[in-house]
């Protein structure tokens, strides 16, 4: 399958949210419906104008969106003023999973993080996603830290 990587546009938001909401955990926290709630478009506007955020989609040869991810570049003082890249919201459209697109998407993200001068690429994944954890380990990611969260809603 021929694929193209490109920066997401406002017109893509509906398709991106549909992919994010289309799994067991995403369906619990997202609000995918037609019309799409305005809060998603507001979030897109904030992401789009931030030079340290890259919301990416991949298209197949017919220009249909088949995957997405968001890369955030975080400048900090540790690691001698290093930059870390954070990958979030990775999704491949359900009907074409298992065909190697996830690996292509991650290879693109790894190369992009290096281009931007990041010294590492990190991600978090829910412990309820054992298949995703195996996939990330296959790509070379290691479980080096214990992540913790403090939710402020629901």
Task: List key phrases describing it.
154 residues; globular; Aminopeptidase; single chain; alpha+beta; five-stranded mixed beta sheet
Question: How would you describe this protein?
Answer:
- By secondary structure, this protein is an alpha+beta fold.
- The chain has one domain: Gcn5-related N-acetyltransferase (GNAT) (Aminopeptidase, 3-Layer(aba) Sandwich), CATH 3.40.630.30.
- 34% of the residues lie in helices and 23% in strands.
- The protein has helices at residues 13-21, 26-29, 38-49, 78-81, 101-115, 130-138, and strands at residues 4-7, 53-59, 65-75, 83-92, 120-123.
- α5 (101-115) links the parallel β4 (83-92) and β5.
- The chain is globular and about 45 Å long.
